[in-house]
Amino acid sequence: MAAAIIEASKKHPKPDQVFSYGTAGFRMKAFLLDSVVFRVGLLAALRSQRQGGRTIGLMITASHNVPEDNGVKLVDPMGEMLDERWEAHAATLANASSDEDLVAKYEGLITELKINTSVQANVIFAKDTRESGPALVAALTDALNAVGANFTDYGLLTTPQLHYLVRCINTQNLPDTKPYGEPTEEGYYTKIAAAYRKLMQGKPRQGQVTVDCANGVGAPKLKALAEAIGKDIFDVKVINDAIDVPSKLNSQCGADFVKTQQRLPPASQASALARCASLDGDADRIVYYFCDSDGSFHLLDGDKIATLAASFIADLVKAAGLADLRIGVVQTAYANGSSTAYITKTLGLPVVCTPTGVKHLHHAATKFDCGVYFEANGHGTVTFSLAAHSAIASHSPESPAQATALENLRALVDLINETVGDALSDLLLVEVILAHKGWGPKEWNSTYTDLPNRLVRVEVKDRSVFKATDAERRLLEPTGVQEKIDSLVGKYKQGRSFARASGTEDAVRVYSEAGERAEADELARGVADIVAQF
Ligand code: G16
């Protein structure tokens, strides 16, 4: 084995670079990633062996990042993000200084983690539409072949589709667990489409929704999903679907563009009050928006999706006679203050705040029976505990109204991709809720008013010097910076601002909100100036 790894590793030399597993795996300029992907392949096989041969997923994507970037992340057996304790092991292999050192570190992990290497490793993987994807897949398969892992290449998929497949495969033959679904891309469409059709039965058609697919993998996959549902029930217009022009990925379009610019993607020609949505490059995030009759732009971001979903699920659970299920919402520091107030005061639901990164939110959400988690940037889903699954499956309704609510709740569970934020499943979730409530985007938007806010990206010499605490709401280092931010924030009514190092881009992000638009912008500029001095 050692000789095979050394031989294969020679083709994938490590550049002079320190690698770290960030918010969502390793992510950087694609030309730096060859050795990283090779080594993450080795780790995927070890992870599978440590898990008794259960299938591990590996996704090659840089999601919302520019086309020149790429990345790699691992998916654990139930479709969740890699166990955080293994992120350090990924970094250990990625940073091994030579082929021999790599084997030494690999064998060190086998001993440290008590891995039985006679277990057959099973890995599945997929990639997004980036030009660098195929070469990175070649590096990956070299690693998997070197250690004799079984693997399946699923080609082009959205990230959440890969998460779905991993969970489906690992729940196929379990004694006490219902299989999550058929472990094929087709099975994904069939399951979600059936749930959507069920939930839309008897509901008035809401007119067309326009979806900007960021010129990424979401475009062909959304078209396939729409086909599976049927045009009579799901009227979608797909824009920004040029996946054969790699430079267009996430450029002037996509969820990140709309969230940070707070304006329409230029390609959008939606009419007033029409529902519009934008996905990101690997379709794991979604934001909605619309233009009012006076042309003003309104963003319906992850916070608005979370509040919509939480209020709908809370009502449905109660109507189904399952009021004992504990429902909660998980947010990050980026959540608009008005959304948090709305959830706690109007909806009467608990809110938990975690650091940025789906891995943190997901973990916190699983502590509730129904955990609704969304980052403001549109990344989120709903998780159901085992107790919730079994209560929803086995409850006997006591009235026709309860029976209807229960049927809808069961279909909703099938509609939602519980494994991770999934833009396609979230799109349908929003469409269903709006149809059930008889709302357009304007009614949805009027549930509460966002505090004016601004999100900016600041390029700094070394983002690693920015160390945050308190769910990333305060900076511990560099010394003195937080005091400067505090004193600036104190000058604005309803002011709030924080800065934190991005885990996916070489930059620091600054978020601000305040009572007035101009003040939120001014505060963001002021904090960005403080940060830029370092
Ligand atoms: C990834 C993570 C998200 C996170 C985003 C930005 O999203 O999955 O949880 O919000 O990065 O993270 P950061 O602010 O650390 O750069 P994606 O859609 O890029 O995979």
UniProtKB/TrEMBL annotation:
It comes from the Eukaryota. This is Phosphoacetylglucosamine mutase. It catalyses: N-acetyl-alpha-D-glucosamine 1-phosphate = N-acetyl-D-glucosamine 6-phosphate. Its cofactor is Mg(2+). It is an enzyme of class 5 (isomerase). Residues 55-89, 112-170 form the Alpha-D-phosphohexomutase alpha/beta/alpha domain. Belongs to the phosphohexose mutase family. Gene3D superfamilies: Alpha-D-Glucose-1,6-Bisphosphate, subunit A, domain 3, Alpha-D-phosphohexomutase, C-terminal domain. The lineage of its organism: Eukaryota, Fungi, Dikarya, Ascomycota, Pezizomycotina. Catalyzes the conversion of GlcNAc-6-P into GlcNAc-1-P during the synthesis of uridine diphosphate/UDP-GlcNAc, which is a biosynthetic precursor of chitin and also supplies the amino sugars for N-linked oligosaccharides of glycoproteins. Binds 1 Mg(2+) ion per subunit. The keyword Disulfide bond does not apply. Pathway: Nucleotide-sugar biosynthesis; UDP-N-acetyl-alpha-D-glucosamine biosynthesis; N-acetyl-alpha-D-glucosamine 1-phosphate from alpha-D-glucosamine 6-phosphate (route I): step 2/2. Its EC number is 5.4.2.3. Keywords: Carbohydrate metabolism, Cell wall biogenesis/degradation, Isomerase, Magnesium, Metal-binding, Phosphoprotein. Mg(2+) binds at residues 63, 280, 282, 284. InterPro entries: A-D-PHexomutase_a/b/a-I, A-D-PHexomutase_a/b/a-I/II/III, A-D-PHexomutase_C, A-D-PHexomutase_C_sf, AMG1_II, AMG1_III, PAGM. GO terms for molecular function: metal ion binding; phosphoacetylglucosamine mutase activity. Substrate binds at residues 375-377, 500-504, 509. The active site is at 63 (phosphoserine intermediate). Residues 455-529 form the Alpha-D-phosphohexomutase C-terminal domain. GO terms for biological process: carbohydrate metabolic process; cell wall organization; UDP-N-acetylglucosamine biosynthetic process. Residues 184-287, 301-439 form the Phosphoacetylglucosamine mutase AMG1 domain. The keyword Disulfide bond does not apply.
